Fold this protein.
Amino acid sequence: MNWLNDLLWGQGIGHSILLLSVVIALGIQLGKIKVFGVSLGITLVLFVGIFLGHFGFQINHEVLHFFKEFGLILFVYSVGMQVGPGFFSSFKQGGVTLNMLACGVVLLGVVTTIVVHFVTGVPMATMVGILSGAVTNTPGLGAAQQAFTDMHGAVDNTIALGYAVAYPLGVIGIILSIILIRYLFRVNFDKENEQLNRIDSSHTNEAKAISLIVKNPAVFGKTVNQISHLIEHRDFVISRIWHNADKRIEIASADTVLSPDDKIFVITTEADAGTIKLFIGEEIDMERKQWIRMESQFINRRILITKPELNGKRLGQLKLRQLYGINITRINRAGIDLVATPALMLQVGDRVNVVGTEAAIGNVEKVLGNSMKRLNEPNLITIFIGIGLGIILGSIPITFPGIPQPVKLGLAGGPLVVAILISRFGYRYKLITYTTQSANLMLREIGITIFLACVGIGAGEGFVDTILNNGGFAWIGYGFIITFVPLMIIGCIGRYFCKINYFTLMGLLSGSTTDPPALAYSNATAPNDAPAVGYATVYPLTMFLRVLTAQLLILFFA
């Protein structure tokens, strides 16, 4: 039975993988259990690892270190790929206010951590672990551990222990602050919902269809191409035209001439719609389905861009209208319809709305690809190029005056920054950044579960002793303070001074702590998707700041 003893208690690869598999499987299953409608999710992997580590199940230190760091890299890189496309746009419109408030939550959490550190004398390394657990931010935990190891050449298990003891009450504290703000300001859900319906400024850049009748003498006899040059700074596409002279409908081309009382079908944005109406004529009450009935010889189809060579090309370079007599009106990217202007850069995974004859659209399909099978194939080259560049970036030492140790983004920060940049700008350099949502989620969940399992196993040996003899119960209280105080302060400021809608505020508070259970509670409570929008708006910047501040606290105070 030596083989069984080696498998359960040895130090080999088989033992390591078996132990990780058991910890992850048990943790995920236990994480599905809900208490008062709230579950800890995959965080239970950490606690299962602590439990087995306490009873002597260990992994070789070098193997454990490799698994932990590689899991962290996979996780933060996939997170960066997910949030990157919306990272920079999140600063536009009302997103600036939301992101500034989220920065306030992060800053107040850091200040509270420093205050507790000096008042209680708890080591800063431990306090950063408590901070990461209090705001349920696992990448911050990984960044802190990496920074401490780089500085001292050793691992401080109290970072993971602080995270573990603070996490459960952190989840509760976030949801509690959301509930208290609701009752403190006597929020009426019906009024909040009506306010959102009245003020909806989040779709001003999305494609909007309008029907116009040509009334402006300045455009009589002008071609579509001439009109495009006259108002070239506006986003619009003239898709179809109904000629008043012979009651004939056709797809608008660059040479199509507009005549008095012609009717045109235009795709534009909310922001530019007024200008287009004023320049061409009057809007008429003619729905899209009426155009479809009138144009029975034409069909409307959405085609997937799946050919890699089209990635990063401008739509105008393909000359599809001139070559095939079709019209591209909209391009759907990540669920948002964009106006198909010639300058728009294409990405693999875009859905192109094409109007034309059956034969013409068949030819366009051959040009664009439209192969779901090809789209489902993973683009591993971009992933590993990004990870490699992230490791290089994270290893570059940056020296600041007054800091004895150079600052590094580390194995958490480097891949995160590179992933955000590649997912947003990679198509310009012919890098295919498209990844199916399921593939990204799989990569992310594998990475975070491996990381949590390794952290738990490594910290398990001293966990119980820490709780009973080394102030672990006090750590729980410190964590709750770090969770609750910043959220209540910023929540009250956001509601009272900034007049933020309560449903959006729920998403802001959940996103500023990167807490999925709090978002799940908010989504279940709200009658709309405003919490999800608020969460997504602040999540990218908050995630980046959590990773950065965790490292800076270690470098300055540890």
Q: What stands out?
A: The chain has 23 helices and nine strands. Residues 61-196+401-456+479-557 form one domain. Strands lie at 207-214, 236-243, 248-251, 263-269, 281-283, 299-304, 327-333, 336-339, 351-356.
